[in-house]
Amino acid sequence: MNRFEGKVALVTGAAAGIGRATAQRIASEGGSVFLVDVARDGLEETAKLITEAGGNAAFATCDVSDEGEVHATVQACVAEFGRLDVLCNIAGILLLEHFEKIPVEKFRRVLEVNLVGTFMLCQAALPHLLETGGNIVNTSSTSALAGMPYGAAYGTSKGGVSALTRTLAVEFGKRGVRCNAVNPGSIKTAMGSGGNLPDDADMQLVMRAMPIDKARGPEVIAAVVAMLASEDGAHINGEEIRVDGGTLS
Ligand SMILES: NC(=O)c1ccc[n+]([C@@H]2O[C@H](COP(=O)([O-])OP(=O)(O)OC[C@H]3O[C@@H](n4cnc5c(N)ncnc54)[C@H](O)[C@@H]3O)[C@@H](O)[C@H]2O)c1
Fold this sequence. Notes:
- With 249 residues, this protein is of the alpha/beta class.
- It has one domain: 3-Layer(aba) Sandwich (Rossmann fold), CATH 3.40.50.720.
- It has helices at 17-28, 40-52, 67-81, 104-132, 152-172, 203-206, 219-229; strands at 8-12, 32-37, 56-61, 86-89, 135-139, 178-184, 240-243.
- It has a 7-stranded parallel β-sheet, sandwiched between helices.
- β2, α2 (40-52) and β3 form a beta-alpha-beta unit.
- The site of nicotinamide-adenine-dinucleotide has 31 residues, from α1.
């Protein structure tokens, strides 16, 4: 499949996990990918993996919660590749803590990265996406659809991402730009390992989030993001697709 031939995708969170897998998938289908993350080493590794496989990649470090850096990064992508067709907002952070113990500054930080970062990337990219008739794929979570124990900050941020996705879909659909989201659940990445649970977590509650059969890697999300971002998703707008091994079925 060469669904992204001649297209340019900006992928945040591209230094690891789902962002890396998505960048690799889009590049493997002919797209040029602009890799964005705070982690320079991981970006270099992703770029190396893509170019060694015959793909086309460039990268920039950027904290998605910093408005100046976000706008400079989108400009750098367009300067590098001449256009922007797809924005994949995948960067994110997880905070697991008992609700009573979440310091307000940590709650705010999760919203700043996961929600405000997604908002700013969308705002900076939209003029370019309007030019190319491009589209956006955001990363929500099963925590936006069902209660996630110890995830008050995270789930709140992802609920916002889902609402933002639907809003952009209706506001920009008529102007030729689609906006969709994926809701991953229990994906085997650094974040998905669940290693940051509070010590005295109620494991019965936590186990509610396990997939029906087995955990899978970030490539299962990348496949769905690529479908949504390609012409195969042409009639899908304002949708979020749950990819969680059946957890919330
Ligand atoms: N793994 C899962 O089970 C799961 C489930 C639901 C949703 N998600 C979502 O999928 C996305 C990717 O998660 P993952 O599992 O690949 O996690 P990950 O921790 O492997 O990757 C997240 C990436 O985001 C980057 N990042 C963090 N803060 C950033 C910032 N301020 N600016 C730029 N980059 C930043 C990190 O450096 C990292 O490379 C996240 O939005 C996450 O919330 C993951």
